[in-house]
Amino acid sequence: MMFKTLHKKSLFSFLLTASAAAGLIFFGAECSQGALRGIYFCTNELVPPLFPFMALSIFTAKRGISLGKAFARLMKAVFGFSQPLTPVILLSMTGGYPVGAKGISALRESNAISRREAELASYVLVGAGPGFLINFVGAELLGSREIGIIMLVSQICSIIILGIVNKLIFVRKNYNSDTEIKSAPLPFFQALTEAVTGAAYGMLEMCAMVVAFSALLEVVRKPLGVTAEILLEVTGACSTLSQSANVSAIAFAAGFGGICVHFQIFAALKGINIKKGLFFLYRIIQGLLTTGLTFVLLKAFDVSVPVFSSISQQPQLGLSVPLLGSVMLILCAAGFLYSVKYNK
Fold first, then answer.
1. What are the distances in angstroms from CA 326 to CA 29, 90, 237, 258?
2. Residue 63 burial by CB count (10 A; 0-12/13-18/19+): exposed, middle or buried?
3. What is the structure's pLDDT at 300?
4. From CA 76, how far away is CA 67, in angstroms rounded?
5. What do you get for the CA distance between the two ends of the chain, in Å?
6. What is the spatial distance between Cα 71 and Cα 78, in angstroms, rounded to a whole number?
7. Do residues 207 and 215 touch, judged by C-beta distance below 8 A?
8. Element (H, E) at 75
9. Dihedral angle of Cα 276, 282, 288, 294, to the nearest 10 degrees
């Protein structure tokens, strides 16, 4: 049985490698164009707003900074997590996709939280930052900062809802092991140095992943359409969907994050074993919650794409065919992940 499992894995790896090599040979120009687009996004949209938040998240974890007992009690009542995670919760909502994961990883490396708490926090503390939603998606793509703000509020609310559900289902009062919690705050300059170098290394990993997925996306965009973009890479998906002003689909793509972002988070969570299928399911739910909340808030505040926007169509607030197709494809992928079993 073990031999068969290893044989299947080797065959899959060989086919995947051969397909990638063939793609580079026959679609070299498209891959280069996609890689250049990924590099441009990293240098102009990703690194400038995200690096400071990532460094700050790691610094708060290494330094053991607290936001006060009152705020910690509030966050524990909502999410059920211990006090060291309080600043990471806040930064994950305002920083960007991998900021929460980097903070969780830093706390685990410092033994400030247990493996179980780090795992449970990893399912919830995921979200796009204000720079991406307000400036890039809202102002640049849709010509409306108000829409970006509404998407950000919707996403924060979806994280809170997921945190409450996660607490009710999984979090217990005493999941931290006394044998694991042996943390001591680092000196200021050591914490600052490790935060900056850790954030720089994390940004390098993220940019490499974005460039790779952007190259892949340029190849599969035409045959598979916007569904593949939503599944794979959030930036390209939002850019394409903005051409038809499909606000609901953009909200889902931002909430889901895309597999490129998921891989960035997995890379940041080194040494923390999380269930990939469960993480994937949480992202689908977060995407649907963000979509629903965005739809309600746009209707409530009567916000529309301004006439001076480069977009020629009115925003589509309903669930469109591309969005439904994307959800179905993602659900099928989630089902596949859950069906995979490894025999030891």
1. 27, 30, 11, 11
2. buried
3. 93
4. 13
5. 9
6. 11
7. no
8. helix 69-79
9. -120
Q: How many of the other CB atoms lie within 10 Å of CB of 262? A: 19
Q: Can you give the pTM of this predicted structure?
A: 0.79
Q: What letter does residue 186 receive in the DSSP assignment?
A: P
Q: Which among 195, 178, 177 has a CA at the least distance from the CA of 186?
A: 195
Q: Are 255 and 288 in contact (CB under 8 A)?
A: yes
3-state secondary structure 248-306: HHHHHHHHHCCHHHHHHHHHHCCCCCCCHHHHHHHHHHHHHHHHHHHHHHHHHHCCCCC
Per-residue pLDDT at 228: 85
Per-residue model confidence as pLDDT tens digits over 117-151 = 999 999 999 999 888 999 899 999 999 999 999 99
Q: 294: exposed, middle or buried (C-beta count within 10 Å: 0-12, 13-18, 19+)?
A: buried
Tally of CA atoms within 13 A in the half-sphere of 109 that contains its CB: 20
Q: What share of the chain is helix, strand, coil (3-state, %, to 5)?
A: 75, 0, 25
Q: Pick the closest to residue 147 from 314, 341, 265, 262 (CA basis).
A: 314
Here the tokens at position 290 are 């963000």
What is the rounded (10 degree) CA torsion for 173, 174, 176, 178?
150
50-54, 107-111, 184-188, 194-198, range with the lowest pLDDT? 184-188
Residues composing the chain: 344
- Return the SS3 of 340: coil
Which of these, 131, 155, 163, lies nearest to 288 by C-alpha position? 155
In sequence order, the 6+-apart residues with CB closer than 8 A to the CB of 244 are: 313, 316
Task: Please tell me what DSSP assigns to residue 242.
Answer: H
SS3 318: coil
Most confident segment among 48-62, 134-148, 182-196, 316-330: 134-148
56: closest CA among 99, 104, 109? 99
CB 305 within 8 A of CB 311: yes
Contact in structure between 276 and 149 (CB atoms under 8 Å)? no
Distance CA 247, CA 141 (A): 11
User: Whole-angstrom Cα distance, residue 119 to residue 39?
Assistant: 31
Q: Looking at this protein, which amino acid is placed at residue 51?
A: F
Greater confidence (266 vs 53) lies with: 266
